Amino acid sequence: MSLSKKILDLLARDARHTPYQIAAMLNEDEERVAQEMARLEKERIIVGYYAVVNWEKAGEEGVTAMVDVKVAPEREVGFDAIANRICRFPEVRDVCLMSGTYDLSVTVQGKDLKDISAFISQKLATMPSVQSTTTHFVLKQYKLEGFIFDEKEADRRLVVSP
Predict the structure, then answer these.
(1) N or C: lower Cβ tally within 10 Å for the chain?
(2) What is the pTM of this model?
(3) What is the CATH number of the domain that holds 75?
(4) Helices marked H in the chain — which ranges?
């Protein structure tokens, strides 16, 4: 396995790792690891670093919606042009090209239902290429990016029976 693949695997599991820590885990030179990480960032293989946050547990209010979007692809650019325009809205968290009935899956965040409704009706649905939308509001998140939010700690006590 290449050094870059090993670095990516470690960062995908925990983005807090420093080049020093990664070098120690891989038995590599810290400078070589730092240079490889810089190259991966420059080439946009590593696009960013973030923490997976359980906002509900942190006491933050907000609403997330998954919006299925049917669009008319544009000549010569297909779905890319409309997807890139949708990506630019600050309310939009994720945009994915999908197979199936709808073309794009868009994750939107807002402070309340009205906020998301206004975004969809005034910004998203009015775009010339957008033919229709279907909105699904997230009621509760159980798992995100591989992390389970309310995982109960295993009971490690010994079973005592009479």
Answers:
(1) C
(2) 0.79
(3) 3.30.70.920
(4) 3-13, 19-26, 30-42, 80-87, 113-118
